[in-house]
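User: Hey, my collaborator sent me this sequence without any context and asked if I could get a structure. I don't really work with proteins. Can you help?
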Amino acid sequence: MGIHRLNHAVLYVSDLERSVAFYRDVLGFRRVPMTPEGFRGAAFLQAPDSTNDHDLGLFEIGAGAGRSTAGRATVGLYHLAWEVDTLDELAATARRLAGAGALVGTSDHGTTKSLYGQDPDGLEFEVVWLVPADRLDDAALDARTRIGRLDLAAEISRYGGDTRGGVGISVPAAASH
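Assistant: No problem. I've predicted the 3D structure and written it out in structure-token form, which is a compact way to encode the shape of the chain:
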């Protein structure tokens, strides 16, 4: 099975409209009118610049639902990772997440620069920028085996805020122009 990309994820949420507002206002998703007629408690969202018909499905299970204990008390998904094109976009996302009280961590994995956020139900996600293939060096490759502190200002100084990430890694080099 050749996988080309993640098409969409579906999350169970306690309050649909609260979750829609979070993904819209903080991460820029837009609601797509594709909920089946007569079906309540679901919303489909598309990420900015996405070509998927939807990237996120949200299904409401009600206010009585407990927060996820995956990784602490049960098995389950830890997080999804969404890739952004530039370090400037990563920095802007960090500001929006922090402003919403949803930024729970950052890390430098050498070849990736990551933010970690939580939605209103405590479901975690990662927003990541990938070092382009032609900018990978031994230091970045060696750092993949440890988790370092992310210094976004230093990374922007090193790589440039508008350098397109992932080229030659997740984005074909020919598609970068």
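In plain terms: The chain has four helices and eight strands. You can pass these tokens on to your collaborator as they are.
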